[in-house]
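Show me any protein, keeping tokens residue-aligned.
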Amino acid sequence: MVVSVSQDGTVRLWDSATGAARATLMGHSHGVNTVAFSPDSKSIVSASNDRMVRYWDSVTGAQRGTLKGHLASVWGIAFSPDGRPLASASDDNTVRLWYANTGTSHGTLEGHKGPVYDVAFSPDGGLVAPASGDCTVRLWDSVTGASYGSLNGHSTLVLTVTFSPDGKLIASASGDKTVRLWDSMTGVQRGTLEGHSASVFVMAFLPDGKFIASISGDKTVRLWDSTAVALNATSECHFDSVYAVVFSPDGKLVASISKDGTVYIWGSATGAVRGKLVGHLDSVNAVAFSPDGKLVASASSDNTARLWYSTAGALRCTLKGHTSLLCAVAFSPDGKLVATASQDRTVRLWDSMTGALLYTLKGHLGIVWAIAFSPDGKLVASVSGDKTVRLWNSAMGVARGALEGHLNEVIAVTFSSDGKLIASASRDKTVKLWDSASGTSVQTIVADAAIKTLSFSKEGPYLETNRGILNIDFLSDFIPLLRKLYVEGHWVAQDTENILWLPPDYRETCAAVHNNILVLGHASGYVTFLEFDNS
């Protein structure tokens, strides 16, 4: 059976199989705004501009009662899961609770400062959540009428509200063109779903609770992944494009860098700002944490690198000596050395305690784009616009050899955990594996695009990259590892499946992943933290 309402004051029942009219329910004196079936489908309740809620038998169409009490139009109605309490939402700024079997009042929920457009019960029936023109959703105890506070964040009227099937999330949709997700236990905002260009007035969770469908005045229907929720609710951000985001070794902190010359430190579990590092006079191009996470190194277009205390945000020292902008920075495994790479074609090694320059490594004929230490700290690998990988003895600052074979600039490099292999990535869309002892090429992997970041996986014979996972057992294989998150095009992907479409404002300039948290940097200067449900 299908039920429809109209501004002609009628409710109509239709046969869903044949489309034939079953009955016309008449009684309202003004337009009918909404209708709901009882959980057992035996009753229908309708709400109208005549201030009335009317109760009908869904089989016979007979009116079973009229619920009177509202002082203005009634916009929303909802049954509790057991079908006994019924809630109605009105232009009179209130929600009324009724005993559905008798039609008597169970109480009035007052507190909103604007019209109430919709109302929803939690799956266990314990909470009532109304959506209001005062830009809030309020939570109430359905039995006692006690208020649990309001959910604040929308910038204009909230048009509709619903609970996830497991009751853990509340979703609200607004005239501000967004859908917001809230933790139903704490009231903490868990995410903002942006992309619609007009008011969102209808939404619903799919039965498994993993996705939300929303309908907007922009004439589109959007499907969102509710398991990926933004953690950061702060308005703080960089003033220009974000170049890189990097996790600390323990995954508890994230550093972001920008063209605006600042470094932000964030708590990865909350997305909250932990510190803002200010001092560079130009863009910050690279950032790295020390192995113990206590220091942060930043490399800038002002020709310097800076060392900071990650928790206090204080400057430790400034590394000066390069004659052109810096492209990369890295700590040795013991944290005693810092390596910097520059457009001046050199790599410099510094004492991380004193900031003293130890060695200048010369030999590249182009910009040095990236650097990496071997696990034992004895070697430094650098890659350049001259298409080569060069190896250096970190203790003596002398060259160990050049690895040649790429057909374009080499832009990323890393060592395997045992130090026996080196992986390098080039703009020629290949990744090469080298024997670190002999310098011979042992494998060439063809990717579908240039790889910008790479590291050896701890989960098997794979390279983790910004383009997914490369299998290093076989030539030319490009196989995303199961449950590994990465960004490809306008999608967040996991394994070979696209799981979350990124609206234009969420398109990334850089990304980093740690366990189930994905961090995105944006051209706007904002940093977004997304936590994915691994269940």
